[in-house]
Amino acid sequence: MSKLFSSLPLAACLVAGAAVRGTFAAPQEIDVERRIDALVARMTLEEKIGQLRQTNGGAVGEALSEDMSAAPLDPAFLADVTAGRYGSLLGRRGAVSYNILQRAAVAGRLGIPLLIGHDMIHSSRTCYPIPLALACAFDEDLWTRIGAAIAVESLTVGCNWTFTPMIDVARDARWGRIAESAGSDPLVTSRFGVALVKGLQGDDLADGRHIAACAKHYVAYGAPLGGRDYNAVELSDATLRDVYLPPFRAAVAAGVATVMPAFHSYNDVPCTMNAYLLRDILRGEMGFRGLTISDWGAVDELVAHGVATPGADAAAKALNGGIDMEMVTTHFADGLAEAVAKGTVREAAIDAAVRNVLRVKFRLGLFDHPTIDAAALEATIDFAAHRALAREAAAKSCVLLKNDGVLPLAAPRVALVGDIATNSRQMQGTWSTFDFSNTTNDTLLAGLVADGVDVAYTEAYTLTGRVDRVALARACDAADVVVACFGDYLEKTGENNASARIELPGEQLAVIDAVKATGRPLVAVVFGGRPLAIPELAEKADAIVMAWNPGGAGGWGVADVLTGAAEPYGRLTTDFPTATGECPKFYSRTLTGRHHVPGARWTTRYNDVPFASVYPFGYGRTYTTFAYAGERVSVEGAEVVFAADVTNTGSRKGRELVQVYTHDVVAQTVRPRRELKGFRRVELAPGETRRVEIRVPAATLGYTVDKVYRVEPGRFEAWIAPDSDSGKTLTFRLD
Ligand code: NOJ
User: Fold this and answer.
1) By the 8 A CB rule, do 531 and 574 touch?
2) Which site from 189, 328, 479, 582 is most exposed, i.e. has the minimal number of CB atoms within 10 Å?
3) How many A from CA of 225 to the centre of ligand 1?
4) Ligand 1 pocket member 161 (CB < 6 A)
5) Domains of the chain as residue ranges with CATH
6) pLDDT tens, position by position, 602-632
């Protein structure tokens, strides 16, 4: 084995890295640490504990709304604030409330400003597509631009901290929070998270245009048993390290300011008090120096988990486990002093947590600039450009799943059917329409009209209700092509929205047959926050566009794809199964002793649905076609170099997303059949061929055994291909 691939315990590398960073810290960092030391030295225990609590912004907002001139002098309010689900603090008064609170806070004995956080997940004043949709764009530049736009808009409404990116690898379509994720793959999720952190935090958190990000939910929240939210997670340590931790490692390396542990238990220990996860791995191995915030009420839930009693015990277990700040509930406020008195928490541990909180406040520049001049900031924001960005993002998030030549729309008369086509709320997504949102009359109907389509709308059915067959037939008869909306309402995904059925609800299958019976081509536009089981559409529709919850300009963006004003761009970041019973279904499944062989009785399978996904990870069509030739893979020093000649074989310009996958052929442990290792988009004119090269660091081809990440010599299989199910099998060796 060459030196390059020697197996060093990852922990050792990262701890060494942290030490180096400590030794050569930048002068500003040393200055900040000195200021933190000076502050902590002056603080009473009570004041320290005050830094570790976060108050529900709803209550704070109510208090403020009584009399805006009177600051809420109740010291309980002078803790950090989360705006809560619907942002009542931010919404009513925005930056005015923010400034009142900050002035009150810095007028205190220690002059410590507040963190005011909110869930600006894919929406602040402008609403973008849900993360699962955005991820399909495979576009780091787009993700960063959206992060930056969210950050500056959030500041104008009085929010300096957001609980995003959510970087939970999500492989189970039943789990409602898959909508908030980037899908099933660690590489895509890592790049998505890093790009958002860069956009939200910028190069300088204190520049007055950026806010603190929060990587969540640490960790493996996307793998609850049965796909049911909050449920326990059972995973091997190796899978934890190779699949679920990498996005967090990447976010920490990118400088994410804060991390939120998840609600669930891992290894029978709630993440909220899991010192192995929070102390050994996050701080020890990854070198994280920011702030950890419990999820909403999660310290309290240690009691419900049956592992703590309320007050001092719950507080001690959470703090000792690695939580710096408690969100909303008050076990820290009520019990930490008692825990110190009893000796179950050392004051030094409280000091360390306080330091983590203060460090974020210093990084944000809040000590020097505690208030916001919202009017001046707003004057610098081009909201029309943000809306254009939302439209661009909606179009780029769409995945063209099928097209028998009916798209882009060319037929003179279009019938648009289904209730969701005229419902702007349903375009938006799980974390949207706060009371500070810029609302728009955004619908698919409006988007098609804006694009100049001769479209007649008839509701004919709701997604979950009955079909008016007469109205539907009449609408179809009067048109040359039918654009029909399918899927599910946005309320069916998001937090605590697990579904035991991911098939199309209501009478949507009857809609397919009724439209087909008229002989008109059927274009299916599918909305929703999860992969759905749509084998019937795959079989019978003439075209399918997966539109997700496309955001506040979604109607326009989806219309742009349907009309060809925008090229289909997205590729799936999750598999689409045939039936719910296959969940979790994901392309990078580990091998079994009986690989699936079509038609072979004793190889792994279901006896009632096909083995292959209806649409696999990485899949997505365009309005042109591409061919691959000359695929090869070679090893050049520390890199594995993939190359292929990609030709645009169609008659329109188009962009192909070239993907590379590997598989370690003989390993110490059972390995996934394929893992994505890189991707690159290439734009080609009709008939144009280009040699596409993707370089992958060999150091990323390893896996973990007994907590040690190693890259081993030997033979690998490789693919350079348009999706996770296709491509010629190539081989290479690492020596
Ligand atoms: C609970 C959710 O799990 C988390 O994602 C969110 O950030 C908090 N609530 C705060 O609203």
Assistant:
1) yes
2) 582
3) 20
4) no
5) 397-582 (3.40.50.1700), 626-734 (2.60.40.10)
6) 999 999 999 999 999 999 999 999 999 999 9
